[in-house]
Specification:
mainly beta, 20 strands, single chain, 5-stranded mixed sheet, Outer Surface Protein A, domain 3, Immunoglobulin-like, 1 helix, 281 residues, 12-stranded antiparallel sheet
């Protein structure tokens, strides 16, 4: 091959690479950088940096052909690490840090870009001081389902907490009835009325719950003991929700003979696994 042709091909290749690899920058009105992103062939490739208005780094993410390829690190405006999101197959773990003392103050999982499951909060000694359960109901934000707070002796602080407990054997014999106990800690008022609703075939995200035939029972003093009987052998996810309703009556400010009625309600979802075995257990 003619050397001049070879040199021309090399030069054209280098120029083409320059056209397809670029760094885009966006600035605050002050002139300081806001974003700095590496692109290749129209996709994010390389680093993605976001900055605080004081110029310090805010987040650092690496991309490979438009997909996040490594852990995501966030920073406070003082330069200390705010969070680290570790990437895994489908389920990420995210740790957040105290801005001043730098200890880990929470830990949770991220699924489909949303916090999902229990998020644990810690003090500077690494002790759990509270935990909040988030579930995915296919909404813009995760649904806050339960919240449990602990005192210095690791006992639950009932005045701050909202949670449920379900007591049942984890292994059941097919076509045999077993006791199941529901316990609910009210979130609205001790005068609330609480129902438990459940049925078979409820999706993991409860998206079909309005199409499922539900059994509905009333709790007395926020507790209920009944029976459960399943026939199909294998693992089953028993799903449903608690429905709390509180109705308040108060005199009208304009007319003492009239009463103002206000209603509040709350749902708390549950999902637990049981195994149904045959006659050999």
């Amino acid at each position: 091959m003619d050397m001049r042709i070879l040199i021309y091909i090399v030069i054209v290749g280098l120029c083409w690479g320059c056209q397809n690899n670029k760094i885009e920058k966006l600035y605050y009105e002050s002139g300081k950088p806001k974003f700095e992103v590496e692109f290749s062939n129209g996709l994010m490739n390389g680093y993605h940096k976001e900055f605080h208005e004081n110029g310090n780094l805010k987040t650092l993410t690496y991309y490979d052909n438009g997909n996040i390829s490594d852990s995501i690190i966030g920073y406070f405006d003082n330069g200390n690490i705010e969070f680290i999101q570790f990437r895994t197959n489908g389920i990420d773990s995210i740790y957040t840090f105290d801005k001043k003392d730098k200890f880990i103050n929470s830990k949770s999982k991220v699924i489909n870009h949303q916090i999902n499951g229990w998020r644990h909060y810690f003090n500077e000694k690494g002790e759990v001081i509270s935990k909040i359960e988030f579930i995915d109901l296919l909404e813009d934000e995760p649904y806050i389902n339960q919240g449990i707070y602990f005192d210095d002796n690791k006992n639950i602080i009932d005045s701050l907490s909202a949670y449920y407990m379900i007591n049942v054997r984890d292994t059941l014999k097919a076509n045999k009835s077993y006791p199941i106990k529901f316990i609910y800690k009210p979130t609205l008022s001790k005068a609330s009325k609480v129902y438990v609703c459940y049925g078979s075939g409820i999706n993991e995200n409860y998206s079909n719950i309005n199409k499922i035939r539900l059994d509905t029972l009333v709790l007395e003093d926020f507790e209920l003991t009944t029976t459960i009987k399943l026939s199909n052998i294998g693992k089953h996810n028993f799903r449903g929700f608690f429905y709390e309703k509180y109705v308040a009556y108060s005199p009208s400010e304009k007319n003492d003979s009239l009463v103002t009625i206000s209603t509040k309600s709350n749902k708390m979802y549950f999902d637990f696994e049981v195994f149904v075995a045959g006659d050999d257990i």
